[in-house]
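User: Sequence in, structure out. Go.
Assistant: Echoing your sequence, followed by the structure tokens.
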Amino acid sequence: MEVQRVPEGTPVSPVERSLRAALPPTALAAGPEEALWVDGTRARLVATPTGEEQLSSMIAACDGGRWPVHVRGGGSQEPLGEPIERVEAVLSTGGLTGIVEHAPADLTVTAWAGTRLAELDAVLGEAGQRLPVRAVAGAGATLGGIVATARSGPMRLGHGSVRDVVLGLRACLADGTLVRTGARVVKSVAGYDVTRLLVGSLGTLAVVTQVTMRVLPKPPAEATVWLPGLDPDAAAALWRAVRSAGLGPVAAEWLDAGAAAHAGLPGGSGLALAYEEDEPTVAHQVARTAELSRSASPAGAFAADAVPADLAEGLWHGLHTVPGTATVTLRAGAAPGRLPALLTAAAAACAELSAAPASVSASLGIGVARMWWNDADGPPPGTDVVTRLRSLAEEIGGALVVERAPLALRRTAGAFGRAPAGLAQMRALKRALDPERTLSPGRFVGGI
């Protein structure tokens, strides 16, 4: 276990003495100053356990000494959630890596939480398989990070959400107890509810150490159709026609002009549809989509074009990846049928407040829209903009989450908005699993 400590001369706490006593002398080493900071708060140390027993010992020592712990995977999603209330130690999952078991016949894979998605994809690819979730958080995304944040990506429409594909977990509770939830094989559902509770909990209920996930065979054929020249209402109408025609895209994403340009797609705003099946089926769906698009626009304002494979790969892998230049990213959710109205109202509100986002994309079949602002594209949104957009979403029964923003904006606007109906039960669960509030206190909904 490698521990990055604060500089020599800093008083050593009883908790740190416990950690040093439990670890070999070589486990303590100096580390970079920036690794110690979380949400403007400086931790005392960064620890990188190389096994579950080391992690368990560390968590137990911190819990006993009332040292709050923040868990870090690849770090790409660290701004998600409310600012942490207090942190004394940062726990990196970078020492928990590698594939434990890949069962191609069962379509399952088990890997340590710190394993990069890119590494998993490479191994699965050799067996003609792949992960159901695309790389939605950049090249550094880890399996544990995807589970903690429940980031599913645009293929959720056809492949299911992270909660749908995670079969079981190994995790460490706040008192250091190692537990196992779920099962390895798809047909078993033992402990499934506990698994679902941990998915998306931002590391506030337990530290996920190992994940068992369903995988998919690579399809014989796939194609992406790009239909430019569509505003949200026109895209939604064409999407309804596609579904009524019995077509089954695994992703349906409306992109505004900025998002389309970011993805390298021509023609301004439009609708991207992804199909996966055998060659004849994919060819039929692409051709039928083209027919529907021509029927929807007899004047030929737009036409369905198949996107080159390399461009399509970049589109679907990068669509929900936060651009490196983005300073603010918001995610709004609503019933799929209400999403176009939300997009239109949000655009009008942003124009009125002089804070138009650089890019907007929306998963039509899922009901999720994302918008981001870049430094070079005018003033970033302030609290008033976030509050206005959140009100618009909540008025139609949706929600708005601040995924990335400067710390000041996260503190004033809040990450989640209106508290959910089950907040009391969620707080009771936190008290039961983490009574000392050791794991990322205050990061989840309602300051949990």
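User: And one key feature?
Assistant: The mean pLDDT is 87.
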